Amino acid sequence: MKKAIRIFITGSVQGVTFRDYVKQHADEKNLAGHVRNLEDGRLEIFLEGDGEAVDQVAAICRRGPQHAQIRDVQEKEEKYQDLKEFKILRF
Fold first, then answer.
1. Which of 22, 62, 80, 89 would you call most buried, defined as having the most Cβ atoms within 10 angstroms of its Cβ?
2. Which residues have C-beta within 8 Å of that of residue 89, sequence separation ≥ 6?
3. Quick check: pTM over 0.85?
4. Per-residue pLDDT of the chain (91 residues; tens, 9 = 90+)
5. Catalytic annotation, residues
6. Containing structural domain, residue 68
């Protein structure tokens, strides 16, 4: 079953290779979407694809890479958009 979610992560999440970390795991699970730093210091992640794979990568994102210090995670289900790849976006 296809699934799409948007995740907002608050904490020390910029400048700790978080975007590359998310892309690596999304690519390994053949997910589409994007990750980007937001101007308010949060990280936004949009994941879509196989529901089980989305859940697995979302769990990985909630932990973050080694040097990330996550204070809050907000998730919401989104409309599936049938994107073709996972991208790191700029501001």
1. 22
2. 34, 35, 36
3. yes
4. 999 999 999 998 877 699 999 999 999 999 999 999 999 999 999 999 999 999 999 999 999 998 889 999 999 999 999 999 999 998 6
5. 19, 37
6. 2-88
